[in-house]
Fold this protein.
Amino acid sequence: MPAVEVMFDQAGEGMYTQSGGMAWMSEGVVMETSTRGGFFKGMGRVFAGESLFMASYSAVKPGAIIAFASTVAGEILPIDLATNGPMICQKGAFLCAQPTVQLNVAFTKKISAGLFGGEGFILEEIAGTGICFLEIDGDKVIKDLAPGEVIKVDTGNVVGFQKGMSYEIETVKGLKNKLLGGEGLFLTRLVGPGRVILQTQNFAEFAGRVAGFIPAR
């Protein structure tokens, strides 16, 4: 169950996270809660799997510390947007970021991706400059696709990908595969060039397995 701990070098530096994302902090850190961009932008984040209100933390003295913990077992992945560019991420992938990072709503371009992609029409776009941290369920796997290179992934195992990559949903071929394959009817198809971040655990499937062992009342 990882956490990211940040030490502020000087007063005025800050981080922000969704409501409830902070795990611990030292003295010398102040908190401010807001919709961060207005009510409508906040509502967009709600549909993208985040909270309406965001909590911003800033240091009032050098050496102050704050930590943000993941919600499930896995990893926390730092992303430097200056070198990786804007990212399109699945719902709930965002953990925390510097104030220069923008968390926006991204709509899937094709109806098929929205209907069958497992994440709905709305995803998260993480842009701007600075460092953001993403939650990974299980272990991370990073794929750098060459131009025209294709990877097909179970949708729940996609964490994010660089903005501008082709993102489509395709049907599993073969009636027997659809009915008996156990992998669902659809796969996410990503086309390079660009970086794809995957996770080894699909938490929704994991939760479903656990729920199967809970006795019904």
In short: Helices lie at 39-47, 81-84, 111-116, 175-180, 203-212. The chain has one domain: 3-212.
